[in-house]
Amino acid sequence: MKLIFGILLLPFCVAITRTLVSMLQLIQPLSYSSLPLSTWGLVIGFTLWVFLFFCLPRPTRSYVLAHELTHALWGWVMGARVKRMRISRNGGSVTLSKSNFLIALAPYFFPLYTVLVIAGYYILSLFVDLRTYEPFWLGLVGLTWGFHLTFTVETLLQHQPDIRETGRLFSYALIYFMNVFGIGLWIVMVASPTARQFADALGGDIAWAWEGCRLHAMKLWALAATAWPRS
Fold first, then answer.
1. What is the signed CA dihedral for 189, 193, 195, 196, rounded to 10 degrees?
2. What is the pLDDT of residues 12-59, one digit of tens each?
3. Is the confidence at residue 1, as pLDDT, over 80?
4. Distance in angstroms (rounded) separating the CA atoms of residues 68 and 88
5. Extended beta strands in the chain, E state
6. Which residues, including other chains, have CB under 8 Å from residue 172's CB and lie 6 or more apart?
């Protein structure tokens, strides 16, 4: 069953990739100097983290903490009780009263530190005008999302029990879709494309992907009927 759901997710992965490309084409500036400071903040923050990731000792314990806290957070939101949590440099674990595929895979697509930065910005903005410091905050968004992305890729290159339990194809497809969807949200946040444009493009691309699946299925069916005609 997990294999079937994984296959059904593949057209959505193709669609979100196509949508991301179209969003990137919409933000082609006349010159790099015309990019808003918010965009530069996001790009510089992300680039800084990539440099730190490859050039300095990696804060593995910080990632393990975020990973297990995300399991616990999503479990709590879905009604599970957190019984025990263990964090170390070599790994961690959290014991919940129940689990499902979203709880198991959440750390791979839910950037906890990025969400905390965004939540902190909006909470503080209720009391202080932070518009002047928006590029700085978006720099933190880029840095923390880079943290999430690099550690997620590194972790997925290893054998993960979460992936094995939920099915490899289904897990990778869902993780890919959610992370690329997140990139689309960052583009909407800092560049000219709007949320409406993003939603319309994604809806159209999903319809395009499934129509392509339907046409290919009909071709395969016709080919099979030709190869094995009814007696």
1. 170
2. 999 999 999 998 888 766 555 666 777 788 889 999 999 999 998 989
3. no
4. 11
5. 82-88, 91-96
6. 6, 156, 163
